[in-house]
Amino acid sequence: MMRQTKRFAAPFAMGILTLGLALPAQAYVGPGAGLSLLTALWGLIAAVGVAVVFLVMWPIRRMRRRKAAATQAASQPTAYRADAEPSVQQGADAKTSADTDSTSRPPRT
Q1: In angstroms, rounded to a whole number, what is the distance separating the alpha carbons of residues 14 and 22?
Q2: 102: which of 40, 50, 51, 91 lies 20 to 30 Å off by Cα?
Q3: CB contact set of 73 (below 8 Å; sequence gap of 6+)
Q4: Which one, of 78, 76, 79, lies nearest residue 68 by Cα?
Q5: Integer Cα distance of 75 and 85 in angstroms
Q6: For residues 52 and 61, what is the distance between their CA atoms, to the nearest angstrom?
Q7: In angstroms, how far apart are the furthest CA atoms of the chain?
Q8: What is the C-alpha separation between 63 and 69, in angstroms, rounded?
Q9: Polar residues bias: where (predicted)?
């Protein structure tokens, strides 16, 4: 442990010395750079905010859709419901699994 402390002592001291002796830059930073920085910051904040909102809203939207689908299924007459038994459905297109022959399909290529 002592060897690692001595190993980084000289570079650390040089870094502190360099930062301490640095003179302030006599440069002008125009308003464009500041506005660009603020725009990027607001864009980042907005992106994170929208992501959080969508993560929170996802389960709520899913729950509302399921509830609406259940309400719609309950309001339909039994003869037209998709989950009703085939014997209850009216019309010639109501088939059971015994009516369909799986061997009549063409082979997969």
Answers
A1: 12
A2: 91
A3: 81, 82, 83
A4: 76
A5: 17
A6: 14
A7: 92
A8: 10
A9: 97-109
Q: Which of 83, 88, 85 is nearest to 69 (CA)?
A: 83
Whether the pTM exceeds 0.85: the reply is no
Residue labelled with tokens 């010639």: 92
| Cβ within 8 Å of residue 89, ≥6 positions away | 79, 80
CA–CA gap between residue 71 and residue 15 (Å, rounded): 69
Its sign, for the CA torsion 16, 18, 23, 24, is negative
- What distance in Å separates the CA atoms of residue 74 and residue 66, rounded to the nearest whole number? 12
The pair phi, psi for residue 33, each rounded to 5°, is -70, -40
State the residue for tokens 């907005």.
46
pLDDT (tens digit, 9 = 90+) per residue, 76-107?
776 555 555 555 445 545 455 445 555 566 66
Q: Which residue has the tokens 């980042």?
A: 44
